[in-house]
Amino acid sequence: MTAHQLIFAYLAIAITGLSVMVITRRNPVHAVLWMLVLFVHIAILYLFLNAEFLAAIQIIIYAGAILVLFLFVIMLLDVKDVEMERRFLGLWPAGVVITAILTLLSVIVLREIDVFPPLGQFSIERIRSEGNIMTIGRVLYTRHLLPFEIASLILLVAIIGAVVLAKKRKGVE
Amino acid sequence: MDLQDLRLLAPEIVFILFALILLLLDLMVKRKEVIALTGLVGVGISAYINYRLVKMGWLGGVLQDVFLFDGYSNFFKLIFYINLVLTILISLRYMKIEQTSYGEYYCLLFFATSGMMIMASAGDLIVLYLGLELMALSTYVLAGIIRRQRRSAEAAMKYFFLGAFSSAFLLYGIAIVYGLTGTTHLKGIASGLHELGLLNNPITLLGLVFFIIAFGFKIALVPFHMWAPDVYEGAPTSVTAFMSVGPKAAGFAVIGRVFFDAFAELDIQWSAILVPLAILTMATGSILALSQRNIKRMLAYSSIAHAGYAILGIITGTAEGLVSTMNYLMIYTFMNIGAFSVVILLRREDLLGEDLEDYAGLSKEHPVAAALMLIFMFSLTGIPPTAGFIAKFYVFMEAIYSGYVPLVIVAVLFSVVSAFFYLRVVMYMYMKEPGERVELSMSGGMGIALTITTIMVILLGIYPSLLLEFVRASVLG
Questions:
Q1: How far is CA B249 from CA B18, B51, B328, B329, B407, in A?
Q2: Quick one: average pLDDT of B430-438?
Q3: What local confidence, expressed as pLDDT, does residue A62 receive?
Q4: Contact A153/B1, CB-based, under 8 Å?
Q5: Given this model, what pLDDT does residue A83 score?
Q6: pLDDT tier at B166, thresholds 50, 70, 90
Q7: In a designed cystine with B207, which of A135, A153, B177, B252 is the match (CB 3.0 to 4.6 A)?
């Protein structure tokens, strides 16, 4: 095993394990803190793929902004009540069985991986010479212009939806 | 990038512009009728631009073919326009009765529809995914728009969680296919799979299965239908009508596009996966509908069963089969929204009007409403001379041509089963003694919607070639 594979293996296992930690914690604050560790690991994965810009964004936006928001929301809610309740249906055994079957299937399928797709136009050399931000910006505003615009609409709908569902008002006009 | 290309995006651009206008209009105008009317004008303008572009023969792809403006997408857009117009017409009075007459309601209907339009036109998996999310996010909110109602909120939550789950499957499928072929472009995937010799690779199959799961969720194929009954029952009835047609048709649009464009050479594989799903879907939909006393829930199971019939055309893997499915979806739009309109008619401030008992003796007090419901129920069953018969007939015929005789026999059997619960409504209306006196909540918009749907259901039943030739022309060129 090369050093690359070792690092990747560590990140893959750690990310899976951390995800499990996030969803199994009873205390929401703990869950969010585990998520923070998870995000840092994902950022390292990006770094490992030579995507420095994505790694930085991952830390700044997700770890920095979104998690803080999460914590705010949790503090606004009354955590103690939720914590005491018995959450999660008693479906653990079924979940484990299904996961085991899926894992087995994936292993069988993944053993067949011997395909080498054609390399894209964004080689490491090209990104090094142009820089991450320039490459992403260029692609975002040319080839992916339409998806970029649609994404902005999705964000708009999210805002409208949040206001519609959360705002108190008299229903009758 | 060629700016000239953008003219093919004009219908969508105008449409989204109107969605934003509706949002702002809500600040200035108190009367919701004005907002609804502006919306209808917007649909009209967008549809007219669409029509002009087709007339001028400007078909083609935009921005390196990530967005396709072709006959196929235009036909689906017509379904979405009709769906939106009918929904707006039946909503006005109903949303007031529910005391949820918000301007944002119309705005969200527009955004959901624009998401569907983008899905139908997507030539690239990223655009497809984003269109799907735009549609889905808007419908989640619409399902929960009656905030103070418990079941509405429950519907929104269920739809949201399961929808997010299915999106994850779609993303995983996209990732697998991208990893194999190095492209998200549908045509590129087809040529990539062919040239790299990946057609028999199990990973390709895994990607295909993920796509079937994700799209199966949107059209409520069994076993990905769990959300449908609860969401259809809990959501406001006008929204149920909207999303039992729109997102379903959009789901079929992307199935047709992805399977026929990107996975065209794998048609034996996806047919083999879809056949058992179709049988399960028809069986579950028809059998579980038998025990429903709530009419919205019954129509939810019926819409599950209808997805099972409509998918038969896709299973054939031929262009003619695709035509029969599209024909089915257009007819389904009219008869399903028609049926939900009658359900809305019975809703009053003091009466939910969703129980089967509420329909007892309807023919004695409101003969016209009962007669209309009779037509829609006959059509949903597939009894001639209504359009529902034609829809089923062509789908079954195409399946037989492609050699799926046993499958069609099963489908016909379940159609017979479904006759029981559709005709039970008719039986209640015509053969039971009326209980409490029921007042109808009639309105001008509702009248127009009922007239359009009734005329279309009968007209397309008598002159099926009217629609069928149109579908053929739009798919086969």
A1: 22, 20, 10, 6, 22
A2: 80
A3: 87
A4: no
A5: 56
A6: very high
A7: B177
pLDDT at A89: 63
Token pair for B327: 């024909």
Residues 6 or more apart from B449 whose CB is under 8 A from it?
A: B86, B89, B90, B337, B338, B341
- Residue A135 · residue A144 · CB < 8 Å: no
- Retrieve residue B147's tokens: 């905030």
* Contact present, B236 and B95 (Cβ < 8 Å): yes
State the count of interchain CB pairs (< 8 A) between A and B.
101
Among the partner-chain residues A109, A147, A154, the one whose CB lies closest to the CB of B203 is: A109
Nearest residue in B to A168, CA atom: B147
Q: Residue B231 has what pLDDT?
A: 94
In one-letter notation, the amino acid at residue A44 is I
Amino acid of residue B21: I
**B166 Cβ partners below 8 Å, 6+ apart?**
B213, B214, B217, B218, B224
The whole-number pLDDT of residue A173 equals 40
Residue A85 has pLDDT above 60, yes or no: no
Q: Quote the pLDDT of residue A161.
A: 92
Q: What is the ipTM of this complex?
A: 0.91
When pLDDT is averaged across residues A134-160 and rounded to a whole number, the result is 90
Structure tokens of A120? 């894209």
With beta carbons less than 8 A apart as the criterion, state whether B313 and B322 touch: yes
Q: What share of chain A is helix, strand, coil (3-state, %, to 5)?
A: 75, 0, 25
Query: Would you kindly state where each structural domain of chain B is located, as residue ranges?
Result: 267-477
Longest distance between any two alpha carbons in chain A, whole Å: 69
For B265-302, the DSSP string reads GGHHHHHHHHHHHHHHHHHHHHHHHTT--BHHHHHHHH
* Each residue's pLDDT tens digit, B342-375: 999 988 877 777 888 888 888 888 899 999 999 9
Q: B318 by DSSP, 3-state: which?
A: coil
Short-list B129, B136, B103, B79, CA closest to B23: B103
Residue carrying structure tokens 């499957």: B169
What residue ranges define each of the domains in chain A, with the CATH number in brackets? 1-84 (1.20.120.1200), 122-168 (no CATH)
